[in-house]
Amino acid sequence: MYRHIVVALDGSHCADRALEQAAALAKLAGARLTLLHIASLRDLAVDNVQLFDNSRLHEMAHELGNSILEEAEVKVRAAGVAQVGRFVGESWEGGRELARTLVDYATGHAADLIVLGTHGRTGLRHLLLGSFAETVLQESPVPLLIARGRDDEAHERSHKRPVL
């Protein structure tokens, strides 16, 4: 079965679903579980325009990534996963480069499975926003388990209260 599972995490509810699935499989198989976060340096730079120090940008990327992974590690250890590793990577380009970084890590560390979440967007939203999961699928020789999160738009519509 699986000996090494890599789960990609970004702090979203979709990633939480992927983490649940990865933890359950790792526990069942007695596999090592690597929690992975790849920081988009471009997004961080845009969000922090005042930041002119490139080294501080890298520090922020690792601080954010480690924060996400620390929280995830607490969850998976509580779920009974014994072997847990962590990795924070970086990407300037986003999209395909983020996917390539994930795939390179997984193949370079003999992963048997990559687990990631997806929003499951379709239509125009998918066309405009792209799909990280689809890009990983195209790039990866490692099998994938894709955990779909709840549809954000449908969830928001179902939880709106009528105006009286």
What does this protein look like?
The protein is α/β, with parallel strands linked by helices and 164 residues long. Helices cover 52% and strands 20% of the residues. It has a five-stranded parallel β-sheet, with helices on both faces. The longest helix is centred in the middle third of the chain and has 25 residues, at 54-78.
Shape: globular
Q: Ranges with pLDDT <50 over ≥5 residues?
A: 124-130, 155-164
CATH-defined superfamily = HUPs
Q: How many helices does DSSP assign?
A: 7
Looking at this protein, list some descriptive labels.
5 strands; disordered C terminus; Rossmann fold; globular; 5-stranded parallel β-sheet
Short description:
This protein is of the alpha/beta class and 164 residues long. It has one domain: 3-Layer(aba) Sandwich (Rossmann fold).
Topology of this protein?
Layout: E1 4-8, H1 13-29, E2 32-40, H2 41-47, H3 54-78, E3 84-91, H4 95-108, E4 113-118, H5 123-129, H6 132-139, E5 144-148, H7 152-158
Parallel strand pairs: 1-2, 1-4, 2-3, 4-5
